[in-house]
Amino acid sequence: ETAVFQTPNYHVTQVGNEVSFNCKQTLGHDTMYWYKQDSKKLLKIMFSYNNKQLIVNETVPRRFSPQSSDKAHLNLRIKSVEPEDSAVYLCASSYWGGATLYFGAGTRLSVL
Amino acid sequence: GQQVQQSPSSLVLQEGENAELQCNFSSTATQLQWFYQSPGGSLVSLLSNPSGTKHTGRLTSTTVTKERRSSLHISSSQTTDSGTYLCAIDPSGGSNYKLTFGKGTLLTVTP
C-alpha cells in the first residue's frame, strides 16, 4: 500500500512558469529525498533532507528549491521552468541510515 | 563515467524461465539495493544486499563486494515480473543519502 504520496501526478506548463510539487510520507521516516528520472530513465539524486535539514544538494540549478515544513513533508518548487526540466520527479523516504528507500508514484512534468 | 553498469540492458524470457541480472560498480559500495520499476513507473525496493547472498521469495541476490559486482536471480519468471530492474549503490559510503542508480535491465516475460 502506498505510503509516500505525491501530487500532482502530471503537470504540463510553459517555459518560464513556476511549479510546485508536494510529497508526504506516513511511514514515520525522518529522511526524505527528491530524485529526477530523465527521458532515458536514469534516476539521479537531487536533494536529501533529514529532520527538515538539508543534508545533500547535488549540482542542481538554483531555480530548484526544496521546502520542508516537518519531517513528513518535502516539497519541490521550480522557478522559471526550462524544457530540460521535463522529467519524472520521484520523492522517497527512509529512516536515517536505513537500508530501504520507499518511493512515491512520481510527478511527470512536461514543459512546452 | 558511469559508476553503476547493468547488464543486459534488456532481456526477454518465456514464463517459467530464470533470469540473471548483473550489476557492476566502479566505487566502493557499503550500500547496494535492487529496485523494481513497473511499466507504470512506480518504484519498489526489492532487496538491500551490500554483501553476501540474500533471498526473498523467488529473488536471490549475490554481492561480491571486493569484486564490485552484484547479481539478481529471478527464478520461475512470471509475466507480472515484467518491468525494469535497477541496481543502486551509495558511493559515499554507508548511507542511502546519495544513491547512484544504473540504467536498469528491462525484463519482458512472455506467456
Describe what this molecule looks like in 3D.
The complex is a heterodimer of chains A (112) and B (111). Chain A has no helices and 11 strands. Chain A has strands at 4-7, 10-13, 19-25, 31-37, 43-50, 53-57, 64-70, 73-78, 87-94, 102-103, 107-111. In chain A, β4 (31-37) and β5 (43-50) form a beta hairpin. Chain A starts with a strand and ends with a strand. The relative contact order of chain A is 0.34. The model of chain A has no long low-confidence stretch (mean pLDDT 91). The mean pLDDT of chain B is 90. In chain B, a hairpin with a 4-residue loop joins β7 (59-64) and β8 (69-74). Helices cover 0% and strands 54% of the residues of chain B. In chain B, the strands form 2 sheets. In chain B, strands 2, 4, 5, 9, 10 and 11 form a 6-stranded mixed beta sheet that branches. Chain B is mainly β and 111 residues long. Chains A and B meet through β5, β9 and β10 of A and β4, β5, β9 and β10 of B.
Strand content of chain A: over 45%
Shape of chain B: globular
Instruction: Tell me the helix content of chain A.
Output: under 10%
Instruction: Determine Rg of chain A (CA atoms, Å).
Output: 13 Å
Largest sheet of chain A: 7 strands, mixed
Mean pLDDT of chain B: 90
Total strands of chain A: the figure is 11
Class based on secondary structure composition and strand pairing of chain A? mainly beta
**Uncertain segments of chain A:** none
